[in-house]
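--- STAGE predict ---
source: upstream dedup step, 1 unique chain passed
mode: sequence only
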Amino acid sequence: MMLDVKPRHEAEAAPAPQRAMAPADGAPIRNAMSIDIEDYFQVQAFARTIDRASWDTWPRRVEANTEKVLGIFGDAGVKATFFTLGWVAERHPQLIRRIVAEGHELASHGYAHFPVFDQSPDEFRADIRRTKKLLEDTGGVAVRGYRAASFSITARSLWALPILAEEGYAYSSSIYPVTHDFYGMPDAPRFAFTPANSGITEIPLTTVSLFGRNIPCSGGGYFRILPYGVSRWAFRRVNQHDRQPCIFYFHPWEVDPEQPRPTGLPLKSRLRHYVNLNRMEARLRRVLRDFAWARMDQLFLGNIA
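--- STAGE serialize ---
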């Protein structure tokens, strides 16, 4: 599948990108707040050190950490989108029901954090179908959004987009238009678009365009590692210069500096995972105050919670 964007007149007929466009001049742009619900031992950076078969032997901290995040969102009056692993939902159904009860969007992160490009199309279809049913049965709401593990919809896995549409998903937030050592599509559009013949809206992770390159500014490790002022400047540039909403994401383990630390991790993995964990909660509270936030479906599908 080629990453062809629909012609402009077709794209303008599609409601999703238009609902996310800037409001009237002077009104603040609402940005999308999202969180990828996975535990510390499930991250891609640990995949070569911690086998999936051993996941049940590790102390689980995802429920307590997510409840902490729910409290932070409650203090700020922010509703967010929770891209959730099916593996977590099976083991923590009450957490899933609390997410829904507090007015947040429940969305899919796949079952067990398998990168899309490591699956066959049939395996991918089975994974997203299983996870969607599990989340819907547990949460009692329709699941319309999907985010691939480690943004693993890339040039070699674009076949996944029409499968998502066929399985009942309305949008994906799985492409990061940057150059990266594991994921990324630097030539992809920077803002919400509908790839031709896909039947689904793709909402890329946010970048700022500088000197002809896309620079990542969508949260995650970049938000922790770089000074807060860099992220604030980038978000404001996207809102004011591009007149577009930002997509922010993080993980529950990022507000947990006391989490267990597996041995034998490569230096790069340790740096990506652990730098500034002790500063993350304060920075998160700050970014929630400094910008306006909403759920992904409210911004891009026009849903009213």
